[in-house]
Design goal:
alpha/beta; Nucleotidyltransferase, domain 5; six-stranded mixed β-sheet; 18% strand; DNA polymerase III subunit epsilon
Length: 216
């Protein structure tokens, strides 16, 4: 999106992370994944949400939703739970299905993670408190594919806080996404679970983009 350039300071990633991405880009230059490390020139981004149950065999439920400058494409969504279904705790899997509204359980192998990487592509990632979701995805990618998440990233929570402070310097900033959605009068979300979380952050991001555009 063009407006991504207006809040480049919110892109997450330390110098060490940027150096690692460049190292990965060179390492995978001759692989089918080389294009993932190239700069994205389009206007779409991907909203990411993730929930993890830690342990010896972690269970990760994840949703990735594509959005364009004016629309969230919920029909283009990746929603699944990554787990070793044969070895994971059945109660944990049932909990993820119930709480995070996932239906399929995928083994976190190279094929399934490669499909997710291709779905996300080299588009920027956005999300509410995005570091948590990227940490989960990084762990999956590094184990299954050999590299971490190379995408540019924008934390919607930080974007919300910055915009709210700009308009109301003495206002307390909301720490929960439900408060932020209400603050910016974003309509209620009809999807539950990780898809609902990703969709909410996508709608809030578009709302904040419109606010920024009005001020330009």
């Amino acid at each position: 999106m063009r407006l991504l350039d207006r809040h480049v300071s919110l892109f997450s990633g330390s110098l060490r992370t940027l150096m690692q991405r460049e190292s990965d880009r060179r390492r995978w230059a001759d692989s089918p994944y080389a294009w993932l490390f190239q700069p994205y020139m389009g206007e779409e981004v991907v909203a990411l949400a993730c929930q993890v149950s830690p342990g010896r065999l972690p269970v990760v439920s994840l949703a990735a939703v594509v959005l364009s400058p004016h629309r969230v494409h919920t029909s283009q969504a990746w929603v699944a739970t990554f787990a070793d279904a044969q070895r994971a705790c059945p109660a944990t899997l049932r909990r993820h299905h119930r709480l995070y509204a996932t239906e399929s359980v995928l083994t976190p192998d190279a094929d399934n993670l490669g499909s997710l990487a291709e779905f996300i592509g080299n588009r920027p990632l956005i999300g509410w408190q995005l570091d948590h979701a990227v940490e989960c995805l990084n762990g999956l990618f590094k184990t299954g594919l050999g590299f971490g998440v190379p995408n540019a990233q924008v934390d919607v929570a930080k974007l919300h806080h910055r915009q709210l402070r700009r308009l109301h310097p003495h206002c307390d900033t909301a720490s929960q996404i439900t408060e932020a959605l209400a603050r910016w009068q974003v309509p209620g979300i009809q999807w539950l679970g990780v898809l609902g979380d990703a969709t909410a952050s996508a709608l809030l991001y578009l709302r904040l983009q419109r606010e920024m555009a009005r001020e330009a």
